[in-house]
Amino acid sequence: ATRVAPRITVIGTGYLGATHAAAMAELGFEVLGLDVVPEKVELLSRGRVPMYEPGLEELLRRHAAGVEGSTGRLRFTTSWREVADFGDVHFVCVNTPQRHGEYACDMSYVDAAIDSLAPLLERPALVVGKSTVPVGSAARLADRLRELAPAGPGVELAWNPEFLREGFAVEDTLHPDRVVIGVEPGGRAEELLRRVYATPIAEGSPFVVTDRPTAELVKTAANAFLATKISFINAMAEVCEAADGDVVRLAEAIGHDDRIGAKFLRAGIGFGGGCLPKDIRAFMARAGELGVDQALTFLREVDSVNMRRRAHMVELTRQAVGGSILGTRIGVLGAAFKPDSDDVRDSPALNIAGQLHLQGAQVTVHDPKATENARRLFPTLTYAGSAEEAVRGADVVLHLTEWREYRELDPAALGEAVAHRRMLDGRNTLDPEVWRKAGWTYRALGRPTV
Ligand code: UGA
């Protein structure tokens, strides 16, 4: 018998949801995406992506029903009724941001999604959580689903964490390092998800089937490990700086050992974004609730090392301009939390620019993609349309997000625009030799001053 392909819905259309929906359509599924914000639904339907994510708009335009010549496999709606009627598999991709003034994350979007969908589920369906949540959430949400859904025990809940990186969302979704699913024994979830992923996605990617708490934990553990790796190398940068060592050479040298690995050892102003910082905090909060807070006290250190990077960059800037920030002009290259993204959530770059502004400097910021988002978050900073404009008359220039275009800057030409040729490289990606040759005082975190 021919099996009909499961029909897929994707709830929440941020980085995760929009990419997942487009990728599922690319694999041939009929997909319905839901967002509670009508403007987003309208944009996405017309094949427009409301954020900067390389390759995503092309993928979306190939399938969005509102785009002429598309496959039409991908539609968007604000209607829960439509989602419940359409889908066999519902992926929950909403945000779990940090709660204001607390370590724990805010589960209200996930809870609201389940509460909106469940009462409309009249036939068997599989709900699949992809959001990053505190361990134990899946079991709680499964109880809630069964209590509210007319289809009762016909509704199952599985956990399928997502590991995509912003800037590489499409690539990571279509070619993941692994697919992890957490299921209850005896249900249909595994078989259904194998069908969803028995596509080019899973070809060559390990498929890990486990229980739900483990699946939830895999995600938080992976992000905690990555954050720890970055803070480890940044701690080494602190020591290098005190001992006249070079953290870039050190990272390269230890990275040759494959047990350590060369990736995620870039020392600099540290990690930011919507994931790593809030995920390690939420993980600590959850461990506390589980009575094992000691298991994760090291993450408190990981967080402190990371936050010290920002303070240290502000301090180096103060030293560079001769002891007082007040009244100086500072050119800042980069606002996004990392290159190839327009995301400024908990961005170290913007945080440093903001601190300097609050200490009385005249700060001008450039970013190739994130200016609009940065302006919304920090309207009192000055924003420039080009790197040259940002550094005009500057007493010191700070390189804070390692966009490719900054590596390609001509230090000699840029030197004509500034008041003083002082470069502080917060990302260790500019070539010290080149800048020094062009008459700049180049200083980087964790490297000898020469
Ligand atoms: C991170 C994880 O890498 C993804 O696997 C995960 O799916 C995602 O969070 C998530 O939980 O949704 P992302 O936040 O997009 O992805 O960005 P990363 O590439 O991990 O970078 C995070 C931060 O670490 C950036 O601010 C970056 O500049 C910084 N970083 C990264 C360093 O300072 N040094 C490094 O060596 C690497």
TrEMBL record:
<feature type="binding site">
    <location>
        <position position="40"/>
    </location>
    <ligand>
        <name>NAD(+)</name>
    </ligand>
</feature>
<feature type="binding site">
    <location>
        <position position="345"/>
    </location>
    <ligand>
        <name>NAD(+)</name>
    </ligand>
</feature>
<feature type="domain" description="UDP-glucose/GDP-mannose dehydrogenase C-terminal">
    <location>
        <begin position="331"/>
        <end position="432"/>
    </location>
</feature>
<dbReference type="GO" id="GO:0003979">
    <property type="term" value="F:UDP-glucose 6-dehydrogenase activity"/>
</dbReference>
<dbReference type="Pfam" id="PF00984">
    <property type="entry name" value="UDPG_MGDP_dh"/>
</dbReference>
<dbReference type="GO" id="GO:0000271">
    <property type="term" value="P:polysaccharide biosynthetic process"/>
</dbReference>
<dbReference type="InterPro" id="IPR001732">
    <property type="entry name" value="UDP-Glc/GDP-Man_DH_N"/>
</dbReference>
<comment type="similarity">
    <text>Belongs to the UDP-glucose/GDP-mannose dehydrogenase family.</text>
</comment>
<feature type="active site" description="Nucleophile">
    <location>
        <position position="275"/>
    </location>
</feature>
<dbReference type="InterPro" id="IPR017476">
    <property type="entry name" value="UDP-Glc/GDP-Man"/>
</dbReference>
<comment type="function">
    <text>Catalyzes the conversion of UDP-glucose into UDP-glucuronate, one of the precursors of teichuronic acid.</text>
</comment>
<dbReference type="InterPro" id="IPR036291">
    <property type="entry name" value="NAD(P)-bd_dom_sf"/>
</dbReference>
<dbReference type="GO" id="GO:0051287">
    <property type="term" value="F:NAD binding"/>
</dbReference>
<feature type="binding site">
    <location>
        <position position="166"/>
    </location>
    <ligand>
        <name>NAD(+)</name>
    </ligand>
</feature>
<dbReference type="InterPro" id="IPR008927">
    <property type="entry name" value="6-PGluconate_DH-like_C_sf"/>
</dbReference>
<feature type="binding site">
    <location>
        <position position="132"/>
    </location>
    <ligand>
        <name>NAD(+)</name>
    </ligand>
</feature>
<dbReference type="InterPro" id="IPR028357">
    <property type="entry name" value="UDPglc_DH_bac"/>
</dbReference>
<feature type="binding site">
    <location>
        <position position="272"/>
    </location>
    <ligand>
        <name>substrate</name>
    </ligand>
</feature>
<dbReference type="InterPro" id="IPR036220">
    <property type="entry name" value="UDP-Glc/GDP-Man_DH_C_sf"/>
</dbReference>
<feature type="binding site">
    <location>
        <begin position="163"/>
        <end position="166"/>
    </location>
    <ligand>
        <name>substrate</name>
    </ligand>
</feature>
<feature type="binding site">
    <location>
        <position position="219"/>
    </location>
    <ligand>
        <name>substrate</name>
    </ligand>
</feature>
<feature type="binding site">
    <location>
        <position position="35"/>
    </location>
    <ligand>
        <name>NAD(+)</name>
    </ligand>
</feature>
<feature type="binding site">
    <location>
        <position position="96"/>
    </location>
    <ligand>
        <name>NAD(+)</name>
    </ligand>
</feature>
<feature type="binding site">
    <location>
        <position position="338"/>
    </location>
    <ligand>
        <name>substrate</name>
    </ligand>
</feature>
<dbReference type="InterPro" id="IPR014026">
    <property type="entry name" value="UDP-Glc/GDP-Man_DH_dimer"/>
</dbReference>
<comment type="pathway">
    <text>Nucleotide-sugar biosynthesis; UDP-alpha-D-glucuronate biosynthesis; UDP-alpha-D-glucuronate from UDP-alpha-D-glucose: step 1/1.</text>
</comment>
<dbReference type="Pfam" id="PF03721">
    <property type="entry name" value="UDPG_MGDP_dh_N"/>
</dbReference>
<feature type="binding site">
    <location>
        <position position="278"/>
    </location>
    <ligand>
        <name>NAD(+)</name>
    </ligand>
</feature>
<dbReference type="Pfam" id="PF03720">
    <property type="entry name" value="UDPG_MGDP_dh_C"/>
</dbReference>
<keyword id="KW-0520">NAD</keyword>
<feature type="binding site">
    <location>
        <begin position="264"/>
        <end position="268"/>
    </location>
    <ligand>
        <name>substrate</name>
    </ligand>
</feature>
<dbReference type="GO" id="GO:0006065">
    <property type="term" value="P:UDP-glucuronate biosynthetic process"/>
</dbReference>
<protein>
    <recommendedName>
        <fullName>UDP-glucose 6-dehydrogenase</fullName>
        <ecNumber>1.1.1.22</ecNumber>
    </recommendedName>
</protein>
<dbReference type="InterPro" id="IPR014027">
    <property type="entry name" value="UDP-Glc/GDP-Man_DH_C"/>
</dbReference>
<keyword id="KW-0560">Oxidoreductase</keyword>
